[in-house]
Amino acid sequence: MYGRRASQLLKEIDSSEAGQLAPFNTDVFDQVIRECSEHNSQFQSLIRKMVEQNLDIETTRNEDHYGAAIHHLSLLRNKRCLMAYMYNRAEVILSFRWKVGPVLPHDIQEKLHFSEKEYFKNHSAAIKSYISEMDIDLTVDMVPPKDPYIQVRVLEDIGEVSLGDHSVSLTKNSLHFLRRTDAEQFISQGLMEEFLE
Amino acid sequence: MAKFPYSSRTRIHGRLPRTRARLLAESLLLPSPDSDANYYDIDDILTEDEPISVVFQVTANGVGLLDPGAESNCVEKGAKVDLPFWLAHGLLTLEQAVSINPPPCFTQRTWKEIQADAACVDLRVLCPYFYELGCKIVPFRYKEVLSKSHSSSMMTMPKFVPRFTKEESRVFESARESMAAFKKWRAGGVRLQKASILGRKRKTKLHDGQPTP
């Protein structure tokens, strides 16, 4: 109570590395929500006590008022913690779209709450429609390019992929000379790496 | 339903970039717990969790859990209780219900120790959010932290690092990272990289035996 449980959620975010996500802590999250109900019911009963004694709620400053104020402050605190938890996780999820791509690997998806998965899906859809209107792929060239073509080594078997006007067979450990924009999405998924002499 | 007289907070002019320095500056100018710009900021929220010793100037009903020594479900006037900063601040400014004693990390003794040799004072033990909470001793240790972090290499960890507060750790780490990035750029390494989130050991098969695409 009084915000102690809510801090646990934030400490969890604080202790994880930047850009990484821990699994959504549904247990603690629900506990905090239950505590909010508890604070609220205590608050209501203190206010009701004052009303029954025919005291003016807005101006009276008695023990019940101060107790109610403490419960109210605790509610605001819990709310802040819950919202900050969701907000900071949402920021990390947004960054996934740009770093990894529109489809998340299975082990990341396991860590997301249902609403977070929805959020990611809608965000990806919004980016996709924006990109198609602009007719430029915004997710490539995240690092300023020096050369339109780079040499890559394939790390895992991908198979036949059609890039532009020809198709390439991407077998493991083969070297290719590809256009940067095509190679970038494979590199960010870990399927290829840039090959330096 | 009672209307509580919570007035809106004044804001700092303009929109400064979301940097550590700006957070520190804001806490120097406006030590208010609900500043809009910091609402979602984890460090700000955790800073306000730090315990502060208060003396209740009034009695409060229905909150006996706050005071471990309370016999009934209330906190009596005159009780000395440790409250988290957010609660102490709210009760002080909005209700005048408590009086605050400054936490032990801000005594004359600490100040003298820091003046003697800043790097040797173990701030984390005193208070991990020393700066954000106290905002008095900033210029002193900052310069030293910055210069040491730039000069130390990747491998060596100076012996005072475990003593850093959170703020200093971040300054230290970001200076270290920028030095490492600079060296990497000089050496001309690969520029495109696998997304760091995928760097962990991952399952290579889905549960039905198919490999992940």
From TrEMBL, chain A:
Gene3D superfamilies: 1.20.58.1030. Keywords: DNA replication, Nucleus. It comes from the Eukaryota. GO terms for biological process: DNA strand elongation involved in mitotic DNA replication. Residues 49-134 form the GINS subunit domain. Coiled coil: none annotated. InterPro entries: GINS_A, GINS_bundle-like_dom_sf, GINS_Psf1, PSF1_C. Pfam families: PSF1_C, Sld5. One of its GO terms (cellular component) is GINS complex. Residues 146-196 form the DNA replication complex GINS protein PSF1 C-terminal domain. It is found in: Nucleus. Belongs to the GINS1/PSF1 family. This is GINS subunit domain-containing protein. It comes from Miscanthus lutarioriparius.
UniProtKB/TrEMBL annotation, chain B:
It holds the Pfam family PSF3_N. Residues 40-92 form the DNA replication complex GINS protein PSF3 N-terminal domain. One of its GO terms (cellular component) is GINS complex. One of its GO terms (biological process) is mitotic DNA replication initiation. PANTHER family: DNA REPLICATION COMPLEX GINS PROTEIN PSF3 (PTHR22768:SF0). This is DNA replication complex GINS protein PSF3 N-terminal domain-containing protein.
